[in-house]
Amino acid sequence: MEKWATRHDFVLSEKEFFSKLREEFSDYMRRIFPDFELVSEEEISLGLIELVEKSGLPVISLDHVYFQSKLNFEIARLADEYGNDRGLGRRGNTLPLIKQVRKLKMSGVREAVLVDDVVFSGALIERVVEVLSKIGISVPLIIAGIGINEGINRINGSREIRCVHTYNSVIDEVCERDFYPGVPLSGRLLIGNDNIGIPYILPFGKPDGWASIPSDQTKNFSRFCIQQTITLFDEIAESSGKPVLCQDLGRKVLRLPTDSTPYTDVLRKIL
């Protein structure tokens, strides 16, 4: 959120505030999933940097939040306003995928390491590798922040993969931003829009289908996440000396105003 805050002249709180917020979130999640783990963005990013440096190859990044590089392939999960999966498309405010592919082809790179935050099933990586192969870029190595054995085994059959963290199996893996409506890149991208997100909580998205939250707990979980989001943006407002308005959000939220209404006023009405 640092880039967003700087761009809109907001002040973020000290790290202690975010640590407390994450601790509260982790405690709640462990009541649902006793083996829940929260892996910090910093831990993933630093680990990716170390692994990339050892590779010695040019980099194509699939997620600039965790690893920034000159070459990127910006892909996002898309959904319609009813929460139906609409496949993959470009991330908000990026070039159409065909133009991104053309740019990669013109880069002159013929061998690269592909970097992503998570390898779950490995299906997405395989599709991207196939696209890159068609434009003459080979990918001998995949580097990921988190790797699940299903995806690792799928990829290992044809190329090497190295991960910061590996897990034999998991119930699910979700970026924490997807549970905080309005933060940059939160939720699935609404198809046909550059910057409207569908967070993984009610009344916006599908916490059970998208994040494996038990169906009988989705309402309470969603209320908790909205309250956490209110706490977050109230704290930013207090630190900045001005409220965060709906029009200021790093990612607008499905069905919520995009005008000058104070954002936490809108969220409180949802509770």
Name of the CATH first level of the largest domain: Alpha Beta
Overall pLDDT confidence: 95
CATH topology of the largest domain: Rossmann fold
Apparent shape = globular
Strand content: 15-25%
Number of domains: 2
Order of helices and strands: HHHEEEEHEHEHEEEHHEH
* Contiguous runs where pLDDT drops below 50 for at least 5 residues: none
Query: Helix coverage percent of residues?
Result: 25-40%
* CATH architectural designation of the largest domain: 3-Layer(aba) Sandwich
Class computed from helices, strands and strand pairing: alpha/beta
Largest sheet geometry = 5 strands, parallel
- Our Rg estimate from Cα atoms comes to 19 Å
Order of strands, widest sheet: 2-1-5-6-7
Instruction: Give the tally of β-strands.
Output: 10
Distance, first to last CA:
24 Å
Number of helices: 9
Account of the 3D structure:
The chain has 271 residues and is α/β, with parallel strands linked by helices. It folds into two domains: 1-33 and 179-271, no CATH class; 36-170, Rossmann fold (3-Layer(aba) Sandwich), CATH 3.40.50. Helices cover 39% and strands 19% of the residues. It has helices at 2-7, 15-32, 41-55, 97-106, 123-134, 149-156, 207-211, 218-240, 263-270, and strands spanning 59-61, 71-72, 75-79, 85-90, 111-119, 138-148, 160-167, 188-190, 196-198, 252-253. The strands form two sheets. Strands 2-1-5-6-7 form a five-stranded parallel sheet. It has a five-stranded mixed sheet with strand order 4-3-8-9-10, with no helix packed on it. β6, α6 (149-156) and β7 (160-167) form a beta-alpha-beta unit. The protein is globular. The two termini are 24 Å apart. The model has no long low-confidence stretch (mean pLDDT 95).
